[in-house]
Design a protein that fits this description.
Layout lengths: L3 E6 L4 H13 L4 E5 L2 E4 L5 H13 L3 E3 L2 H19 L8 H9 L3 H12 L3 H19 L4 H7 L5 H12 L3 H7 L11
Antiparallel strand pairs: 1-3, 1-4, 2-3
Helix pairs in contact: 3-4, 3-5, 3-6, 6-8
Length: 189
């Protein structure tokens, strides 16, 4: 039998990968690899297996994606979340080139599709993700704001602070005093 890649919505962290792996194991479904937003199964699922897996994933807040456009949007989100929240390396290019190369689509098409379905631009999604990462780094209190700006590829602390205030309604220092009460779950952004 041939392997089958399935796409899964709302996978936003390493724990999500573990949860999906646990579901697959519990259901006795062999897989080769599970990554953010997708799993490569050892075999194509029959309708009954797909329905059971879909229910199992749904019970954990995930969604088995069907359809090319939904899958593409999920891949865009997964790539951006992985790059912004979990990568130790800065991009050597801009996000539009990064997405185009990874997904083999013209960025203009990806941008139009994302905006039409999600109601926000890819750029706004990136900004929201970066601000959530900045919040996390502020809560850890291990880096200065200057170091955070550098790590998150902001051109200056002033630009980071302006964007932070625009997104959250408070400055980074006000947020630190607030102790991060306004952090959001990544799948809710």
């Amino acid at each position: 039998m041939e392997s089958k890649e399935i796409l899964i919505k709302n996978m936003v962290c390493p724990r999500c990968i573990q949860a999906v792996e646990n579901s697959l194991n519990k259901l006795g479904l062999e897989y080769h690899k599970v990554e953010l937003g997708k799993a490569t199964l050892a075999h194509v699922l029959n309708d009954s297996q797909e329905k059971i897996l879909s229910t199992s994933l749904s019970d954990q807040g995930f969604e088995l994606l069907k359809g090319e456009k939904s899958a593409l949007i999920s891949q865009i989100k997964s790539l951006l979340i992985e790059q912004i929240h979990f990568s130790d390396h800065s991009l050597l290019t801009n996000y539009s080139t990064f997405l185009s190369k990874k997904l083999n689509h013209d960025y203009a098409y990806l941008s139009r599709l994302f905006s039409s379905v999600e109601g926000i631009t890819i750029e706004k999604f990136i900004t929201k993700q970066k601000i959530e990462k900045v919040k996390e780094l502020l809560i850890y209190d291990e880096l200065t704001l200057s170091e955070i700006a550098f790590q998150m590829d902001y051109s200056s602390v002033a630009y980071l602070s302006t964007q932070f205030k625009k997104e959250t309604g408070m400055t980074p220092s006000e947020f630190k005093k607030d102790k991060g009460q306004s952090r959001k779950s990544l799948d809710k952004i």
